[in-house]
Amino acid sequence: MNEFILLLLFCHVASPVLHALRYFSTASSGVPNFPEFVVVGLVDDVQMVHYDSNTQRAEAKQGWMEKVTADDPRYWEKETQVSQRDQETYKDRISTLKKRFNQTGGVHTYQRMYGCEWDDETGVTNGFYQFGYDGEDFIAFDLRTKTWIAPTPQAVITKHEWDRDADQNERWKNYLTQECIDWLKKYLDYGRSSLLRTELPSVSLLQKTPSSPVTCHASGFYPNKIMLFWTRDGEELLEDVDHGEILHNHDGTFQKSIDLDVSSVKAEDWGRYSCVFLLSGSRLVDLLVDTFLVDQNLIGRLFAVLILSGVTVCLQNTPPCFHNFGLAQPTGGDRQVGRYVLN
C-alpha cells in the first residue's frame, strides 16, 4: 500500500518498443501510518530502488542492483544523500503551497516524476520531469524550450523562478537526454536475465451468460508491453469493446482482459471475430483466438493461430488437439469458450 499511493497522480503509457527509467517521489503531510517522504525508482515498471523517511537510506529492491557498485562504489551513499536533501526540500514546499492555495490542515501531497525512455530499435529517446500537488498537475519541464509549464495560477511564481535558472535547466536537459539514458541501459544490462526475458501467456475466452460480453483474458506474459484487442474481418474493433488495465500477477508476470459486447452479433457472424495478442520484446508473438458459438452453451469450435518467427500453427479443438496442445474444457464459474496456453 505504501508504494501504490506513489502512482496515483501519473499515468504513463509506454509503446511496445520502449524501455523506461522513472523515479517517483512523494512528500505528504497529515497521512497517518505512512512515511512523510518516499522515493521509488523503476526500470520498465520493475521497482529497483526505494527510500523512505523511516529508514533514511536508499536500498536495492532487486538482487541485480547490487552490481551497480562496480560502476560507482558510492552509488548508494549518493542516492541516500540526494533523497535526504529532497526530503527536507519537499517538506518546505508543502508548507509554501498550502499558503498559496489558502489551506491549513488536512492531507496534502507533493509529488515528482522524472525519467527517460529509450527505443532500442530506433534509438529515439525522450525525457520527462513534472510535479504534482494534491493529485493535480502543478508544473512540468518543457524539454524542447528548457522552460517550465504552469497549468495553474499558483504555479506561475514557481515557473518564473525556475525559468530564470537557465544553467540548472540546461543541466536537467543534459541529464534527461544523456545521463538518464546511460543509466537506463546499465540497469537493463544488470537485470538482463529478468528485465529482458520473455514469458508467453495463456489466453482464455470467457462468457457468463449467452447475452453477457465475451472476455478475452491473457495471463502470465512478460514484459507488459503488449497489445490485446478484438478484430472483425481482420480490422481492429474500436467500438463495443471495453479494455481492462494491465495488472500484476503474484509471480511477476502480468494479465489483461478485453470485453466484447456481443448483443448485436449474429450467430452466423462469429467466424468474423478474433481476439489478437501481440507481445513485443526479443521476439514478436501474435496470438489469434477465433471462435464462433454454435449453441446456447457457448462451447463451439476453437481455432488458435500462433505466429512465431514466421511459423504458423493452426489448432482445432478436436479431441487429439485438446490432448496435444493443452486446450481446456470449461470448469464452473464463467463458461470458458476456449483456452490456449503458449509454452
UniProtKB/TrEMBL annotation:
GO terms for cellular component: external side of plasma membrane; extracellular space. PROSITE patterns: IG_LIKE. Residues 1-20 form the signal peptide. Keywords: Glycoprotein, Signal. Gene3D superfamilies: Immunoglobulins, MHC class I-like antigen recognition-like. GO terms for biological process: immune response. This is Ig-like domain-containing protein. Residues 201-275 form the Ig-like domain. Belongs to the MHC class I family. It comes from Myripristis murdjan (pinecone soldierfish). SUPFAM superfamilies: Immunoglobulin (SSF48726), MHC antigen-recognition domain (SSF54452).
